[in-house]
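Just wondering, does anyone understand these tokens?
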Amino acid sequence: MNNYNLSSGDNFDIENIDLADIDNIDLANTYTENCLKEIKSDISNLRSRAATFLGFAGLLLRFIIELPNSLLIYLYTKLGAFLTSFYSIVLLALLLMSNPRLGEITHKGFIYKYFLSDPVLDVKRMILKYNINFFEYLNSEAHKIKILLNQAIICLVLSAFFFTFNSVLVSFLGK
């Protein structure tokens, strides 16, 4: 039996797995399918968080409109709050946009091309190869989503800072 190290970054040749390793392919397929479910769930949770923050950013934008701007310092803090809130909205909108899926083959095409024409071992190899590629794609998407979400949160915190600073200035200096 061959020992395959499936850790990230290692290359192994799926095509050279022999018939004696069919149980290993089944195990690898089960493992990658579970990883795919987990990463899809993580992406869904991140997008849900982003939608919540988008609602907060929109609400904050609405309150920023009401801030006074009669003094120059009020205007600067209002402008800072507007710009950071708007930038967070842009980041969150980019994050929430749908992305095309990896691969050009449809599930129907995948079934006709591989399942009905190839032996079982070849089909299992192809599924494993597809799942590994799809997992890598989803993992990179999750990483991009996390970066955009973190940047949007930072912008919202800055916007809240400007909003609060404007309110404090108004409290001490008056309108």
Remarks:
- The chain has a mean pLDDT of 82.
- The first helix runs from residue 22 to 65.
- The chain is about 75% helix and 0% strand.
